[in-house]
Amino acid sequence: MSTTDDPSEDAGRIPEGPAPSSDDVRAATPAPPPPVGPPGMGAEDWRGGRGAPGWSGPGYGQPDRSSSRRSLLLGVAAGAGGVVVLGALAFALWPDGAPDAGAAAQPAAVTSSAPAPASPSPTAAPTTPTVAVVDRVLPATQVWTAMGVSCVTGDVLSIAVAGSVSHDQTLAGTVGPTGLLDPGFHKFNVEGFPDAHTMTVIGSLGQDPGTFFVVGEGATYVCPHDGELNLGVNDRGVQNNSGAFLATITLTHG
Fold first, then answer.
1. Smallest Cα–Cα separation from 237: which of 169, 156, 172, 176?
2. 3-state secondary structure (DSSP) of residue 183
3. Could you read off the pLDDT of 8-66 as tens digits, one per residue?
4. Which of 42, 72, 118, 212 is deepest in the core (most CB within 10 A)?
């Protein structure tokens, strides 16, 4: 055995004596601190991954799925609540009467200050004139004969005369509605027709001298006032006459 007193040599020297057993080693090793777990959970339960009844969560054996679902539902509810709040704000700030986005835009009403056109004055509906046609016999044996046709102011009388008569009851004295063309007979004319042919057809309204007119073979006369049509022959000496004319009278009224 060396007698050297060098301390470094003593540090590397293995102590003499019997080697320690495994039980001695475990006894000499300090025990680790017990894990901290939920109340009621033992160390063996904690090491085995088993938690206390009803206890779970991160770091306690099993993940907490119910907590994850609650977190997801809370997040969804928070998002939905935000959408509702934003919608309420948009509705509150939207101008009154604004049309919906999907509604068709309505054209703005246009007002005009132009005066309304004046209503046209009512006009009388045109009247359809009435026409009456009659045939009358005009004897040559009297100066005036009432025709039984009356007119009012403005009515139109259209007269057509046909036939022949005799002014001396002989064939040689036969004349038509135009009368005798020889002015030598004018001395026999009716007063008021001094220059008309003798024996020609004449007319008047009620034998009023102011309405005298010559008819001859035909004439159109506008009634100046109300009255009855009279026709005759322009001859004062009718006592030697014979025969009669045929008069067709058309009265237009309106």
1. 169
2. helix
3. 455 445 455 555 555 554 555 555 555 555 555 555 554 555 544 444 444 444 555 55
4. 212
DSSP category for residue 129: P
180 to 172, 239, 243: CA distances (angstroms): 12, 17, 15
In-domain check, residue 149: yes
26 located within any domain: no
pLDDT tens-place string over residues 171-211: 899 999 999 999 999 999 999 999 999 999 999 999 999 99
Say how many domains are in the chain. Answer: 1
List helix spans (H) across the chain: 7-12, 22-28, 43-47, 65-93
The neighbour count for residue 219, using CB atoms within 10 Å, is 16
- Please report whether residue 189 resides in a domain: yes
Q: Residue 196's domain spans which residues?
A: 130-253
Confidence at 137, pLDDT banded by 50, 70, 90: very high
Tell me if 181 sits within 8 A of 221, measured CB to CB: no
- CA distances in angstroms from 46 to 49, 61, 66, 215, listed in the order given: 5, 8, 21, 151
Q: What is the CATH number of the domain that holds 145?
A: 2.60.120.430
Decide: pTM greater than 0.70: no
For residue 145, tell me if it sits in a domain: yes
